[in-house]
Amino acid sequence: MPDTLLLTTLSFLFIVSGGFLGISLARLTRVHPAYFFLLFGGVLAFTLRFVLPQRSLLSELAELGAIFVIFLAALETQWDARFSWRFDELVAALLTQLAVAMPVAALFYFWFKIDMTAACFTGLVAAAHAPERRRQVVGDSFRHNMISGEAGFFGFVSEVSLLIALALMGAFAQRETISADLLQVAVGILLILILLITFVPQMLRLLLRRVSEESYAIYYLMLVLLIGITLLMRRAAIEPLLGAFAAGFVLARFVTEGSKVLERLRFTGHSLLVPSFFIMFGFTLVLTGPLTAPHLFAAAAITLATWVLRFLAVRLLNMRAAPARFSVLHLTRKNPFVMVLLYVGAARGVIPVSLLQPLLLYLVANELLCVLLGLSEPQGETPGEPKADARVLLPVSNPETMLPLLNLASHLGHSGRAARIHPVNVVSDTGETEAKIRSVEAQFNEIIPLYAARDQVVQLSTRIDNNRIRAVARTARELLADRILLGLGAIPTLQRPQGYSFLESLSEIALQNTILAAHLQADLALTSHINVIVANRTLLESREVWLPLVVQIARRLHSEIVFFGDQAVLAEIEQHMHADERSTPYSTRAGQMHAGLDLVTLDANANAFSIAVLERTFRYPDEKIHARLPEMMLRAFSDRNFMLLYPAVAAGVQIKKPRSAWRKIKRFMGFS
């Protein structure tokens, strides 16, 4: 047996070597790296001439690795705010899970003669599946889940029910009494969840107001909360993994994608702890005994039964009237989350150790089948694949519009996720530049603690430039911002008859950005309807840009959409909404846009939020009626919320610019 220093050095060498080989092979085969970590651990058990002791570095890190797998699984699960599950979907998810779990459990109970608890747990393992198909197997995260529809919700329910079943079955297997202990576990889980929901978020909000998210204090606090909640669960005789999952689920709303704290947590887990667990699991699995024919037969039986049942379940689910379509991959692909629960289930006595090998063989066969089935599908972005985070550039100068614009910007992310907001203060280069910068910074620092939706760091930056339009356009390019949000407020930018206002000039320059100009006079939370004015038929060419954004805002504000436009325009919008946005309530009102539109009669409700979708100046129609819509809206809705939306111009669209200096002068004077 090597001495302590040599054993620690060898353990570290095993971890980094297994990590390098696992990630490299996963990139080549599209199989999850956790399976290669298992294989590396198994090979290690055959080649080493000694058995790793319980106090070795690899064994100790493996215990923390199991906790981090569960914690990161919950922390990296992203919910689409546009998706809200219903009770019938929860019932359908549970029935779909039972449709697989019960036959598999019956097979193992009657054919393989194992006890009822182990058979039920085996059935739940077979029924569990990942929330949605991962974007890529190896990337910044070992697991990237996005719950944006029924398929993702079904997977989330299956994994959570398996985790809860492990906690209850583990308590049942380790105790002699039944009812009192299970009641104690249920009450303990409820009390700790109440603590997580009430105390922890308030403490984090208080700290985030005073400490930047990039500070290591937030990172260490996350680790303290994780370890503290896990130990509290263990002290209350509850499965600690349930506490790790609950901690990750609660803390996820305070960690944004791409933030420093999330990258530090991922590095802590994925670099050493998570590979340590899977390598040690593979090492231990080999020591449990040789692989036998009954193990292979059991693995083949559960694989065949699971896939046949999944095919039948997909056929039945797709026969419903629901717009969501399921595929076999939606209900078969599993996460390494399940292997952790298998290991802990064997350690808690829920399943016999002899059942580990056939269940691991089933998971390996299931992963290979999913990879082969995925290769046969057409390449491209899957429906559930998350988009990159939206970046919103927010020029600020008026303290009256800062807070309302920040609240509106929080609703402008892709797929319901929070947008990355970049406030910028553009000031002219004069003798009062420094005073203006300090004044705006002081006003911004007073307002930012009131930002109710602040789950991320929002930091003000300053740019000195005498040309504000050019400064905003260049800053948007430098920050890769795809949306620019302006505040109208009391600034009369729309009252110049020449049409060369700041907004219109910016719309002619920043063609690749979606520009939004908001006039906010009331709380957006009171919005009941969203009136969408589609000014011209040419806007249908860019509906893939503005229509999802409008639907996103409506769902975040829990409002109904009312579309206004020509009859032909509304017909195409209805067709698109019926095909892709069935769950979004909407209605239409036809009007002759070329003859003008009396905006005062659109909606008498003062809580309606009106959005006018406009084209850029170079694409105005000949009658130019919708060019007057901004001025009409400013006069009609001076005391209400409205917004002007200029969709980004697609690449390849011909841009018509003034042909001569005389043409520019005429346009400046308002004659053309």
Structure explained in plain terms:
The protein is an alpha/beta fold and 672 residues long. The protein has three domains: 4-177 and 263-376, Up-down Bundle (Na+/H+ antiporter like fold); 388-487, Rossmann fold (3-Layer(aba) Sandwich), CATH 3.40.50.620; 522-672, Rossmann fold (3-Layer(aba) Sandwich), CATH 3.40.50. It is 54% helix and 9% strand. The chain is built from 22 helices and twelve strands. It has helices at residues 4-29, 33-47, 57-75, 87-110, 116-127, 150-173, 179-208, 216-235, 240-251, 260-287, 293-318, 328-332, 337-347, 356-376, 399-409, 433-447, 468-478, 502-509, 543-556, 567-580, 629-636, 661-669; strands at residues 77-79, 145-147, 391-395, 420-427, 461-464, 483-487, 514-519, 529-534, 560-565, 586-590, 609-613, 642-646. The protein has a ten-stranded mixed sheet, with helices on both faces. A two-stranded parallel ribbon has the order 1-2. Helix 15 links the parallel strand 3 and strand 4 (420-427). The longest helix is centred in the N-terminal third of the chain and has 30 residues, at 179-208. The radius of gyration is 29 Å and the shape is globular. It starts with a helix and ends with a helix.
